[in-house]
Automatic annotation (TrEMBL):
Signal peptide: none annotated. InterPro entries: RNaseH_sf, Tc1-like_DDE_dom. This is Transposable element Tc3 transposase. Residues 9-59 form the Tc1-like transposase DDE domain. It comes from the Eukaryota. It comes from Stegodyphus mimosarum (African social velvet spider). GO terms for molecular function: nucleic acid binding. The lineage of its organism: Eukaryota, Metazoa, Ecdysozoa, Arthropoda, Chelicerata.
Amino acid sequence: MGTQFVFMDDNARPHRANIVSECLQSEDITCMDWPAFSPDLNPVEHVWDMLGRRVAARQPPPTSLPELWRALLFEWCNIPQDQIDNLILSMPSRCTDCIASSERHTMY
C-alpha cells in the first residue's frame, strides 16, 4: 500500500499487538494517529449501530443465517440517507468535543 493510503484503526487492543505493528511497518503502511476512547469519531461505528438496531427490530426476527443475511442487506440498503448525512455533518462537533475533552469520552 505504501504512501498512497493512510490506515485507520480504532486502537482496539488486538490492533496494538507487536505483530500488527511489525506488519504495518514492513509494508510501509502509514497509520493515522487516533485518540484513545474515541469510537464516536469513526462514522461507520454509528452506521453499524443503526444497522444492528434495525435488524433487531424486525418482526419476526431472522431465524437462520440466510434470513439474517437478507435482513442485513435489506436494512443496509434502507438506512435513510438523511441519517448518514446528519452523522457526517456532526463530525466537526465530534472532533471539537474530543479535543476539548483531552481525548476522554464525549457526549457522543
